[in-house]
Every structure is written in structure tokens, then in C-alpha cells.
Amino acid sequence: MHIGKLGPHGTFLFGENMEIKVNGVTLYYEKKGFGKPLIMLHGNGESHEIFDVLSEALKKDFEVYLIDSRCHGKSEKHVEISYELMAEDMRSFIKALSIEKPMLFGFSYGGITGLLLAISDKNILGGLIIAGANYTKDGFTMEALMEMESFYQKTQDPLYKMMLHEPNITHDALDSIQTKTYIFVGSDDMIKLSHTKSLHAHIKDSKLHILKGHNHYDYVVHNDVLKTYIVKYLKK
Q1: Which H or E element spans position 17?
Q2: CA-CA 20 to 30 A from 129: which of 164, 216, 226, 230?
């Protein structure tokens, strides 16, 4: 049972917290701020809450949509999951709410979702920011791969199985991206720097910023380090 009033496009309102059925799955999201629309997508095993600090900093400049991906946070659990399905979730979400040319910030596998969306629909996004994302399974450092494999063997978690076998985005697909793209990676990230540089090389006119001294998480999770970069880039 939904506690709250019925909102637009089949959403259910919980103050500024909402649920919407798209692509056959119920997604939870929150909306805050005013300005150009900005969608924020978290990584594996996380929720929109990792952006608590960053979204507060950004809401002064953007209308921020914080979404829990399928099988995460407060969104519907125990449903089929793949990067392609999550990209279609976002396309359907944008269409259902009639969001005009939103910018998308994707962290880790949220970034993979953003890449696939930009590949499949060339005109849907107004800008794309990728942080710590790989475009093939070979993008992880050996240490990260070993840790994920060990965790999967112990838990059989389907999210980790997905990470070990996906994504499989080709260079040709990356070459086809027309959305302006800004790429971040930590110098001590679990994503190899060589892999991120290859991502940058294959997305025309993309920008790359390597955050020295940062790992995979610390510049995004409960942090507003990226605020200045995001505002400057997306307001161009």
C-alpha cells in the first residue's frame, strides 16, 4: 500500500519522495532544487543516499533527481537486472516525467548506465558526467577483480556476477556518443587509468579529469568535491 497522494504520471508522492512504475519496475526517487534537470545515479550496492552532500550543494543550481536503481535502495527488489535494463529504466523515467534534455551524473555502474543510454538514444541527454566507470569488465584493476570474484564465490550475489561479466561496450559504440561528456577517475581508483583514458579517447570531445590522491569512492560518497567541476561544466 502506498502512503501518500497520487502525483503526476502515475507517481506516488511522499513529500518530495516519489515512486514511479517504468519499464515494468517500480523505482524510488527524490527531487530537490530548481534549475536545469540533473539525474544522479549511484553505483553497485548503494542508493541515492551516497549523494546526500553533493546533491545538497547542487540543488542551488539544478533540479536534482536522485534515483534508486532497480534492486537497490527503496526501489523494487528481486527483479531481473542488467546494465541494458537499467539504461532503459532511465530512458523510460525521463520520458514518463517529460524531463527535457536532462544532464546525467553516473557514479561507477551508474556511469555505465549513462554510457549505454547515450549510445542507445543520441538526443535524450543534455550532458553526461561519468565518475569511476568502466566500459568493459576488463577495466577493473586486478586487485579489484580478485576481491569481487572472492565476494561472489561467497555470496552468489547477482549484482557481483553482473559486474564480473558486464559491460561489453565496444569502441565503435563509444565512438557513436554525441552527448557532451566529462569523465572523472581517482588516481587510486579501482578502474584502471589506462582504461579510463581509452574511454576518453573514444568519446569525441570528452573531457577527462584525474583526481590525484583519490580512490574509487572518497570524492563522491558523502562528499561535494565535484560540485565546482559539475557546475562549471554543465553551465557552459
Answers
A1: strand 17-22
A2: 164
Q: How far is CA 206 from CA 75, 91, 180, 181, 235, in A?
A: 32, 22, 6, 5, 16
Q: Name the domain count of the chain.
A: 1
Q: Please check whether residue 15 lies inside any domain of the structure.
A: no
Tell me the whole-structure pTM to 2 decimals.
0.92
Contact status, residue 103 vs residue 38, Cβ threshold 8 Å: yes
Sort strands 62-67 and 25-32 into parallel, antiparallel or unpaired: antiparallel
CATH code of residue 197: 3.40.50.1820
CA 219 to chain centre: 15
Torsion over CA: 211, 214, 217, 218 (sign): negative
What average pLDDT does range 90-115 have in this prediction?
98
- The answer to whether 189 and 216 are in contact (CB under 8 A) is yes
Q: Average pLDDT in the 179-186 region?
A: 98
Position 16 in a domain: no
Residue that wins the pLDDT comparison between 2 and 135:
135
The mean pLDDT value of the chain amounts to 92
3-class secondary-structure state, position 122: coil
Question: How large is the average pLDDT for residues 134-144?
Answer: 97
- What domain range includes position 100? 24-234
Q: Which residue has the higher pLDDT, 126 or 1?
A: 126
